[in-house]
Amino acid sequence: MTTLTTPFALAAAPVQPIMRLAGATPAFALAQSLSYTWRPALDVAGNRPVAIHALRRAMEVWAALVPPPRGVRIRPALLEATEPDGTDRRLSAEWSIPRGARPGAILYLHGGGFVVGSARTHRLLTGRLAADSAMAVLAPDYRLAPEHPFPAAFDDALAAYRHLLACDIPPSRIIIAGDSAGGHLAAGLVAHARALGLPLPAGTVLLSPWLELDCVAAGEADHRSRDPFVSPDAARRLADLYIGEHDPSDSRLHPLLCGHGPLPPFLIQVGGREALGEDARHLAQTLTSAGIPCRLQMWPGQIHVFHLLHHWLPAARAAMRQAAAFAVECVDRDNA
Questions:
Q1: What is the DSSP letter of 258?
Q2: Which end of the chain is more exposed for a tag (fewer CB within 10 A), N or C?
Q3: Which residue, among 127, 34, 141, 21, has the nearest Cα to 93 in the 3D structure?
Q4: pLDDT of 165-188, one tens digit each?
Q5: CA pair distance 168, 52, nearest whole angstrom
Q6: What element of type H or E holds 155?
Q7: Are 256 and 268 in contact (CB under 8 A)?
């Protein structure tokens, strides 16, 4: 593994090289299989409500069969949230608490194209992150499109961050993380917290983030080398469901523009075979140009959110360990 010379060193091309780990053959076989199964199905399903609801149910059934990692306890929670009109409501969430948890918390925003997923469906990620970092992980069940278009999910993410601050957890001990669409929410949340004058977290971890909802860069990358998992055309249709009737120029929908002002360090991990890797490169360039510490890791041969496969892929296990180590490093740096 090639490492950066200083904890948050910057480079002209901010890519941290990743060695090819054992397990490349299974990763290749998986990518080929998905290319002929999952991606065509996603292209056909697109933004059809029946398909979205069926996928939600299937994911919840599958999630019920996945136990948390050894030593991690799952605890449901209800968070206080306030609507724009001032009415109060409750936001369901889930804590993944490791044995001997260190002070602090990771706020984790799950992926799923803004239309599927929950805290339960992403326990493979939140539980592993909790176990590897020895930090408690809070995953909110933010509202999903198309029933709840933007800014519902964003408002829920902000409510979850405010909840951690209200629990007297120092911001220097909070990490904001997310995968795919959750990565979009995480990056936007950090920038919006700065705009609101809220204290900033210690760091940000993005796993295969989906940052450009118009998918222009992803479409060009997909044309050069076909993504076996993500269909940019289908992703664009999901983005339309998420944005709804809202003004698409809203800054909260454009986390790639977040590099104007101080922000905490970023770690961005993407698979080498995913079209959304272009999003990650653009964000890394924006951040480093603004002097914001950022590490971009490109994992050769891996697919979108390959981290979910850490039970089977050595690269996924290594990536999760590095994400956890980055979170701990950020917290320790701010509390030395």
A1: -
A2: C
A3: 141
A4: 999 999 999 999 999 999 999 999
A5: 38
A6: helix 152-166
A7: no
Residue 174 — φ and ψ, nearest 5°? -115, 135
| Kind and range of the H or E run holding 270 | strand 266-271
88-98 and 136-140 beta bridge pairing = antiparallel
Burial of 215 (0-12, 13-18, 19+ CB in 10 A): buried
CA torsion sign for 300, 302, 305, 309 is: negative
Going from the C-alpha of 158 to that of each of 19, 184, 287, the distances in angstroms are 36, 13, 22
Distance CA 237, CA 306 (A): 23
Tokens for 290? 């603004």
In the numeric block, the tokens 């101080």 are attached to 262
Q: Are strands 266-271 and 203-207 parallel, antiparallel or unpaired?
A: parallel
How large is the angle between the packed helices 123-133 and 314-334, nearest 10 degrees? 50
- Respond yes or no on whether the N-terminal peptide bond of residue 199 is cis (omega within 30° of 0): no
State the CB neighbour count (10 A cutoff) for residue 86: 6
The number of angstroms, rounded, from the C-alpha of 131 to the middle of its chain's C-alpha atoms is 18
Amino acid symbol at 103? P
Helix, coil or strand: residue 293: coil
What is the rounded distance in angstroms from the CA atom of residue 92 to the CA atom of residue 171?
A: 22
Nearest in space to 91 (alpha carbons), one of 115, 118, 60, 67: 118
Read off the pLDDT band of 82 (50, 70, 90): confident
Question: What's the rounded Cα separation, in Å, for the pair 130 and 135?
Answer: 5
Question: Average pLDDT for residues 10-23, to the nearest whole number?
Answer: 46
- Of 18-22, 111-115, 122-126, least confident by mean pLDDT is 18-22
Structure tokens at 46: 């697109």
Q: Which of 204, 210, 313 is nearest to 270 (CA)?
A: 210
Q: Measured between alpha carbons, how far is 64 from 21 in angstroms, rounded to an integer?
A: 31
Predicted structure pTM score = 0.90
Helix or strand holding residue 129 (H, E): helix 123-133
Q: Which phi-psi region, left, alpha or beta, contains residue 313 (left: φ > 0; alpha: ψ -120 to 50)?
A: beta
Active site residues: 180, 274, 304
